[in-house]
Every structure is written in structure tokens, then in C-alpha cells.
Design a protein that fits this description.
The chain is α/β, with parallel strands linked by helices. Helices cover 49% and strands 12% of the residues. It has two domains: 5-229, Aldolase class I (TIM Barrel, Alpha-Beta Barrel); 242-306, no CATH class. It contains 14 helices and eight strands.
Amino acid sequence: MPTGQRITQRLHGISGILVTPFDRDDCLEMKKLRPIIDRSVEAGIHILVANGNTGEFYALTTAEAEAYVAAAAEMLDGRAPLLAGVGRSVGDAVALTKASVRAGAEGLMIHQPPDPFVSPRGIVDYISRIRDVSDGLPLMLYLRNDTIGTANIAALCAIEGVAGVKWATPNPLKLAEAMKACPDHIVWVGGLAEVWAPTFYAVGARGFTSGLINVWPERSMEIHAALEAGDCATARARIADMEVFEDIRAQEMNGTNVTGVKTALQMIGLDCGPTRPPSAWPLTNRQSEALGGFLRDNGLLQAQAS
């Protein structure tokens, strides 16, 4: 199968955003990621993502991000497609794109530039510069700000090589509008994880991103299977069971998003170290107690211990 084709076939599935493991000296310790990758593959997660936001992308140096994608690709060893996040300055994005291609990534997820002076037509140039060194890999646009407008989203989707959009704004009506305005080949993926997946499915998106896969990939697969079967009631019930976990991740202006995942990993015996500032670390005692109760109630502590 040609490079990139496998990943486009799986965009309707779950894109699992891997955490970044650190040691006690705040250095990458990639070997800690292996059991998380192995369990995700065994559970059937369709795509794994290196250098996503659950991976603390903006807390990594470009050199660390390059080392990360190389190590993740080696550990994954082709068992599932690897989608590699690229971004920050255009120079950093180009360098990381080249490193991701060398590592064997099968697609690229382009983070929306957070520059305070970004322009919609400048994003076109930004994506085009990345595309030019992408070796023909399919491009997934990570859209966190839809205020650029439907016409500009359509212009981005018209760039050669763009295969999909990770829609990460809580605006399903704007999503529906963008889908109508863009080429039919674009795959629209829910970019706000399991909680928003039923809403995005209702307007025609398919698949979703997930940080939960680091802790509980089997639950993510259950939710995806229910949505694909049109069983929204079951999907919502499975999501409701995760309310405590998702509530903790949404606290402190979402500053505990990755903190909740990494703390849960510590609790189940897969310590990947702390998060880096400006993410919150550690959880408060109250947050930790609630998270521990959630894990116990769902049998995750016992399952890991056994």
C-alpha cells in the first residue's frame, strides 16, 4: 500500500494522541511510551499521533519533537499508521516535517499557527511551505479557531495534499457549513475527543481524536463502535461514565488536561513523569482523590495491577 494511503483510510477511526514521557530530570524517556503504544495497538486504535497537544507539543523543543517522532515510529514499527504533528514557526515546522518523513510517519497533522498576527492567507503560505517538503504525505489540518471564516477554511482545504481537518472548536453549525463549502474528499474528524464526538457525528464528521487512549483505549474503541453503528444512546452512556475524568481535565482553563492523563498513568503503574509548565502539576488533593475513585470504580487499577 502506498505511503499515506493507509492513514487516509483510517481517518474515520480514532486518532490516539500519545503523551510525552519525561524522567526525573525533565528529559525525554521514550521507553516509557512502549507499553502505552502496545496496549493501544492491541485495543485496535486506528491511528497514533506523535507531537499532538496531549503530547505537550508546545512544551517541547523542536529537537525533542524530532527525537519523539523517530522513537515513536520505531516502537510502533508499522503496526498502525503514525500521524506526526508539526508546527510553530514555519522554519520549525519545515524541519519537523522533514524529520517526520525520515522517521516513517504516514501523515502530517499541521497545528494551526498560534501567532498573534496570523492571517488567513498567511496560513495558506504556511501550509504550502510544509506541503513542499512533505514527500507527498497526506496533510491533516488542526483547526482550533474557526473565526478565520468558512471561505478561508475552504481555501486551506483546497491546497494540494490536504486530506482532512481535525475540527477542534465547539461549533457544530460552523462545521456543517465548512463541510458544505469544501471538496468532497476532505475527511472531517472530531477534534474535541470523545465528549464532543456524538455532536460532530450528527452533522457528518467521522472519527475522533483521543487522549483517553493512553489510559483506557478499550473505552475509546467502545464509543467509536457505537457511533459507527448509529447507536448514539450507547455512545453517550459510555461517555457519561467518564464524566469525572473529563471534568478534571477541563479544570483550570483546561490546564489540567494532560495533567489528568499523566496522573492517571501514574496511578495505574505507567508513570510517564510530570507535565511541563505552563500546564498545571500536580493535581490538587481533591482532584487526585476524584481521579483515583474514577479509576477504581471502572476497574482500571485492578486491571493494571493484575
